[in-house]
Predict the structure.
Amino acid sequence: MIKKIKHFINYADLRKFRFWLQLFFFVFFIYGGYLAIDLGREIPVFSCGYNHETAGTCYFMPLQHQLARPWETLFSAASIGVLTSFLVFLLWFIVFNKAWCGYACPMGTLQDWITSFRKFLGIPYSTYNDTQYKSLKKIKYIFLIIVIIFPLLIGLGLLDGEWRGAFCDMCPARVITPMFVGDFSQWSIDFSTKTAIFLSSFGLIFTALFFVGSFIKKRFFCFFCPMSAMHYIFSDTALLKLKKDGDKCTKCGDCYNVCDMQIKDIADDVQSTNILRDDCILCLKCVAACPEDDALHVDLVNYPIFKSTKGGFAKRMEMDTWEKKNDS
Amino acid sequence: MIHEHKIESPKEKQNRHKAMEAISMLEKLKHDFKEPPKAMDYFYNLYEDVHCKQKPLHADKVKVGTMCIQVPAEITHALDAVQIRLCNGFYTDDEIGSDLLPSKSCPLVKATVGQFASNNFSDKPDIIISPTTCDQKAKSGAIIEDMGFDIYDMEFPRTKESEESREYWRRSVRKFTKELSNNLGKKLTRKKLKESIKKIGYAQTLYHRLNSLRKNAHSPLLGVDMFLVTNAFFFDKIDAWIPAVEALASECEQRVKDGTDAARKISPRIVYTGSPPIFPNLKIPYLIEQSDAIIVADETCSSNRMFNDMVSVDEWFLYDMVDSVADRYLKGCTCPIFTKNDDRKRRIIDLVREYKADGVVYQAFAGCQVYEMEQRSVLEAMEKEGIPIIYLESDYSPSHLGQLTTRIEAFVESLKNRKRKAK
């Protein structure tokens, strides 16, 4: 029985599974408010609080506000709430690791849909070259600094209070997600102050880039996402893990070839057992595209729940059967 | 009665010699071992037809000859042509080639050049693709071109780790695709390439299905027979090869169920690596299995390396398919022409573990410099893992058999002793 279930999972059509799960989470997070669902404000994906119907808010929104408290308050018992919300965030995160990105993030899902649209038009995608890749991937850490360090500087009195939600102001999720419940009010530049003009115009530019970029490049935005950087810091503690058995790997590069995030280590690193990298969105396309038995697998607390198999690969690539055609 | 006196032409003589080489190997394979699977008859007959009777298989098709395994068959097939690998295993041709190449050249290259020099093909290639893999192959492309053949040099990188080499090879494959398409006057369509990738993918899946049966304690198939099966992929009609291997795999699956062993229980299990055994030069595999060992896996470009790595495509459009196909022929390749050989060592060790082998036979053709050069590092790596290994040098000549037999028998005997002690 267990064998049958395992076979079913390992031979599953990951694309379909992902599509439906992503659709579910998208609807859930964007429209959950209509059903009075509220999972709180510690959700580890860009489920933006500017969307008033969200079923749970991105952790960065409260985090920036909490950290901007004056330091004496922040480091006192009064701020125990800051710690508890961090722990709640961590709890959410620990269960699914970066699969939040690949399966639950509405912004990620939206990018995948834009990719589907591009595919529908038959337009090739582009990729970064090695140099671009290495320099651009640092940007998400700069954003993470903005999320964490800027509010702290406000608390110290070194930075103006206007910078409190600096990242949120720049984030395309603020502009995009409310649209799905008919709220287009974020599509504007805030002319109240110079800083506001700067931040809100940046937000609009970033939004435009989001649409153009993800049309050209798969998961364009995830590459710059500070939440992804934040995840990575804690990913070692997660229960769900992406593992690799280097001995079984032939370095054929099939996994790298399908990787939306161009993570080369997935194919080339035969030393690491934990193969999750900072850009990873744990979409598991690599596991599905690996033709070697057990070379890549997803473990839940050291128990493999989805493994790469020769048979599963052949089935997904439709290489498991062949019918002779008369013209060939 | 007047007998017309006929003098044998050089071509006839060459064919007669090759037929003798072919038939003597086939007879040995058919009769010197336990009964082979019935489905092997297809392959025995195929070799007899092609190499003894010079029967053309692809008379009505455009034939693309290849000098190495890196030419993407997926693309050739999608352009309605057949791909024939010209790597040659005949001593007769090796001798002809010896006059044209330095004396210390690789016999495989000499034999390939020799066949061109004699211009004697049952399926003569219309165009020849020469990937710039090893020095000898790359240079012989030019020699063959001087003989008046249509050669296309397909640029191939000698390192494979860097992103640059990957991009370089992808460009090379894109260019090849375009030029072949122009040359043949056929347009590559999305549908055709997709079908072709899936067909070759299915052939690979079949290979894996058959190959994995050799993991069983009682391997249902001898290594020599497996080499025949994979060698046939060089030149056979793929539409005929597929059902033949399907039948063989089904029969072997039955054999596994019945507990039929192609060798004996005590027979040491061997992983074969090194220069490719190509029919009829199955000398070393034959000697190994005659010495009561059985080859359960191999790491050679005439077998495992042709089928091992599969194509994965993310977006089934020409742009992604062509690039994905390109990757298959570079990234997973364990050819010793590359700067480093870590992947090859890892592959051999993995095969030894997966197929529960008792030892490794490393065979290099005298003159095949890259395999000769890698020998030491592979031996060291095996020693580290505690895997017994023997290094043999051989060529296509029928001499030196005595010495090779003695060494192989001694190696097999020592493996048997280890096996007995382990019990």
